[in-house]
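re: ur question from yesterday

yeah so i grabbed the chain u mentioned. its 471 aa long if i counted rite. heres the sequnce exactly as i have it in my notes:
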Amino acid sequence: MNLATTPQRTLIPAPVRGLRADFRWGVATSSYQIEGAAAEDGRTPSIWDTFCRVPGAVEGGEHGDVACDHYHRMPEDVELIAGLGVDTYRFSLAWPRIQPGGRGPANAKGLDFYKRLIDELQGRGVTPWITLYHWDLPQELEDAGGWLARDTALRFAEYASLAYEALGDRVEHWTTLNEPWCSAMLGYAYGLHAPGRRDPGDAMAAVHHLLLGHGLAAGALREAAGGSPLELGITLNLGTATPETDSEADREACRRADGLGARLYLDPLVHGRYPEDIVADLAAQHIELPVREGDLAAIATPLDVLGVNFYRGMQFSGVTEDGSPLDAEGLPVTRAVDRDLPRTAMDWEITPTELTELLVRLERDYGLPTVITENGAAFDDTVAADGSVPDADRTAYLADHIAAVVAARAQGADVRGYFAWSLMDNFEWAYGYAKRFGIVRVDYDTQTRTLKDSAKWYRDTIRLTRDADTA
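ran it thru and got these structure tokens back, copy pasting raw so excuse formatting
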């Protein structure tokens, strides 16, 4: 079954109940996906500006030069955000806008944009939640080695200090990295994202230097904050790994998938060590993480919150379709298995109950407060004759996943917030503008914003939650 282009629901679900008024509600975006103004006010190219120019790298040869033109339409967008009733807006800073080239002093014009954004948000009662890195590494740092180079981690800590010095007096919520798995694996192992490299060993070096960059930046932020309020975190894209059968091969495949997708990040961040089984698996491939003395202590700088980006769980088999336990390279098979489940336009299975499973597991194994920093779905929206955007499939997706958060909290998971991805349709990386995740539609020709039905449902759910808790 593939329901990627078929709405799953035609009726709008009732608003989800069961969350307290102090539960945090938000929407999320990232700089390169919405800002545009790629060469204005001192911004220099990022790895995504470069990657988008590689023939065949991005669908349609598209890029983020204009995107949603948020850089020029920011006050209008903040008004939109406030009208949704959310209390938090998660956005990322563009490193090459704040520190062109990735070295040297801060760019005052770049910082001024974010100062104006924060002022607009706070003036409308919306809390800013900053992500320092959402994949737009300055191209000059990539030319010097990118995340393969240990120096990039040092440069990231310097950039974090510059950002906090300028904005820390008005922002308490800071996330270092967004989805280091994507930066390392999609960018350095699979070549699907910038910078487009394809080497598993390079990817593991990138994993370690990303985590080291997080740890050094976290330490720098703690030091800069002194006694000032600071909620510090990192955001990981996480899912679940379910064996196709109870066979040892399938259970081993899940161990590997979970190890490389989750524990490789969570264990050093929380426990100060890499998982021994995954280190051994990598050694069998002649890959070694470039750990130096003191690195793991830095990476394990205490966190206040773990951001969780959830889109799907997956099922795995440990044999090929013809039954072999080894792949073409002689390595143990870890094969994703399609299930008979509805899917989004990304061809991703829709698995809300597995979000509950994940959140309960995170509470049990890692004990950190969590916030769902991204959750949402791409569907093939159409504009109705009256100009509205009915998207019952996306609304159902949000409703089912928020209900999964309620269920996880009922089982003891300390989940403190939910941010819908995304505020608006935007540049969807290698897919260009072909996939729409927004709860707000963007007409890319006119830059007109239109609330989809999912946005109205989300607004009503937030209102109902607050009203119910104060009734």
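noticed a couple things. The first helix runs from residue 31 to 34. also The longest strand covers residues 127-133.
anyway ttyl
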